[in-house]
Design a protein that fits this description.
heterodimer, A: about 270 residues, mainly alpha, ABC transporter involved in vitamin B12 uptake, BtuC, about 80% helix, about 0% strand, globular, B: alpha/beta, Rossmann fold, 6-stranded mixed β-sheet
């Protein structure tokens, strides 16, 4: 027990713990709606645009890469949303094209002069290096997300079922989809340095996907998703501390185990 | 009739009218619809029939504002009226709902029709939803996940949801596909009930010529433009109708009564519309 408590004697562990307590429910809430709206590929593509965001910052000489990453991701998300709307039958192809272009452009710029290793930490992330100020940013987007979800969860649900029927009920489909895309973009960009570009989408999708295996209504769906996300975040953090491996992947492995367990328990194919 | 009392009825008149004037839809250089003129009055059932690719669904999308169109759609009621006041209830042809969708029928209603976040289960909303479902004998389905409903059950749920908002115009796009013959009679009786008691203008895209004949007040035969319009009797007697569907045996006394189609006619009809499964998946309880 003493050994367990000893991990809180380090400031970086307390910060990481706070970050997990914020990222868990935040990702769970967004993830439920992302899975509902079949946007898993969309959020993945957004993650890939992080490289280009950093690259844009380097080119423009912006010192805070966060600003250029968020700025680029928001524009990227909105453009993607509007192209999706025009070509509803080809969404996955279009997203794939955009994601590849964004990744390639970013890699080109960042590898110029052989400096890519400076940025490779983006790929894996490191939650132990998060600072209080960065936790504050997460808290702000967390509160914004909760407010948005409270207002918009009904509309997002309705749109996910059928956009035409939603419009016939006077729901402003395009506006809601745009705000939602912007919130996903900001959240992904604010968390990518802590959880890593390669795993950010897994953390968004897995808790919601697990919850979907066993839920019969929206309250169960969101509730289980938050519980699974927090549980895998906390367990992943502690396990990674004690066996000394990167935190992000351990969290994803715990979340994946929950997914397979619920898949079997739910008995759905 | 209890439900009728609850509804804030507009003045029952036949004066409310949705006027479609010179409507046309073009996709690039392709003309899908042109010169569509139609008046849809409250308290009537208008059916749209036509072969596949005639533009029936596109016409519905134009009415809903989903596709760009030329021409005008106006709404007039006894107070003057404005298109902004035209509430349209819409029941789509099909919904692709994943079996594992974590949404109950209550959640579906709450999402589309109410502002209280679906995460809070409100007793008041629950009671209202149950009332709306009762209209279509679907109240037992309220807690069922929507992915587990049969075609007929889902359809009754969707219609109750569309009707709940008290629309002036109710549009149903091929609502009877996936429903067997007894289910169809229940469906059309309900439409008749809605038209008579709610004074709704009802527009149905349909393939089932027998039921259209029995229940429609007006029929629009569409083939990129209106090729015939009027009472079912008149439209079914036109040459355009024969060209599209083949000869349909008519009898003056058949409206609202039994069908007088011969087996051969029925055969012809089903072969014309063979991709519509009339009896595929309907397992509806009370219906």
């Amino acid at each position: 027990m003493n050994e367990f408590l000893s991990l809180f004697s380090y400031d970086f562990m307390i910060n990481a713990l706070l970050a997990v307590l914020l990222i868990g429910p935040l990702f769970a809430l967004l993830g439920t709606m992302i899975v509902m709206k079949k946007m898993a590929f969309f959020s993945d593509a957004l993650g890939h645009s992080a490289f280009t965001g950093v690259a844009v910052g380097v080119i423009l000489g912006i010192t805070s890469t966060e600003i250029s990453m968020i700025g680029f991701a928001v524009i990227f998300a909105l453009i993607l949303n509007h192209i999706k709307k025009r070509n509803p039958d080809n969404v996955d192809t279009i997203i794939s094209v955009f994601a590849s272009v964004a990744t390639a452009l970013g890699l080109c710029v960042l590898s110029f002069g052989g400096n890519f290793s400076e940025y490779s930490s983006l790929l894996v992330g490191d939650i132990l290096s998060i600072s209080k100020k960065e936790i504050l940013y997460l808290l702000i987007i967390f509160i914004a997300t909760i407010v948005f979800i409270c207002f918009a969860i009904n509309w997002l649900n309705a749109i996910s079922i059928n956009a035409t029927v939603a419009r016939s009920h006077n729901i402003k489909v395009q506006l809601i989809e745009d705000i939602f895309a912007v919130i996903i973009a900001i959240t992904v960009m604010l968390s990518i340095r802590w959880v890593g570009l390669l795993l950010v989408n897994a953390l968004l999708i897995l808790p919601a996907a697990s919850s979907r295996n066993i839920s019969e209504n929206m309250r169960e769906y969101v509730g289980y998703s938050v519980v699974f996300s927090l549980f895998s975040g906390l367990l992943g953090l502690f396990v990674s501390y004690f066996i000394n491996i990167a935190t992000g992947p351990v969290i994803v492995i715990v979340a994946a185990i929950i997914y397979f367990a619920t898949y079997i328990y739910g008995g759905r194919s | 009739m209890e439900v009728v009392k609850r509804i804030n009825r507009t003045i029952a008149c036949g004066l409310c009218c949705i006027k479609v004037k010179n409507l046309g839809v073009h996709f690039g250089s392709e003309t899908v619809l042109q010169d569509i003129n139609l008046h849809i009055h409250c308290g009537t059932i208008t059916e749209i029939i036509g072969k596949n690719g005639a533009g029936k669904s596109t016409f519905v999308k134009a009415l809903l504002g989903e596709v760009k169109h030329t021409g005008d759609i106006e709404y007039r009621n006894i107070e003057g009226g404005d298109k902004k006041n035209l509430r349209i209830g819409y029941v789509p042809q099909n919904l692709n709902i994943d079996k594992s969708t974590p949404m109950s029928v209550y959640d579906l209603f709450a999402s589309f029709c109410f502002k209280v976040p679906v995460l809070i289960k409100s007793k008041k909303i629950y009671a209202k939803v149950k009332d709306a479902l009762e209209e279509f004998e679907a109240e037992d389905l309220i807690d069922r996940p929507i992915g587990t409903l049969s075609g007929g059950q889902l359809q009754r749920v969707l219609i109750s949801m569309a009707v709940m908002d008290k629309p002036k115009l109710l549009i149903l796009d091929e609502p009877v596909s996936g429903i067997d013959s007894s289910g169809m009679k229940v469906f059309y009786d309900k439409m008749k009930y809605l038209k008579e008691n709610y004074d709704m203008a009802i527009l149905i895209v349909s393939h089932d010529l027998e039921y259209v004949y029995k229940y429609a007040d007006n029929v629009m035969l569409l083939d990129n433009t209106v090729v015939a319009y009027g009472s079912p009797r008149d439209v079914y007697a036109t040459k355009a109708f024969d060209d599209i569907f083949g000869v349909f045996t008519l009898d003056d006394s058949s409206k609202g009564a039994d069908s007088h189609m011969t087996d051969m006619d029925l055969h012809k009809r089903t072969s014309d519309t063979k991709e519509e499964p009339f009896d595929a998946s309907y397992k509806g309880g009370k219906a």
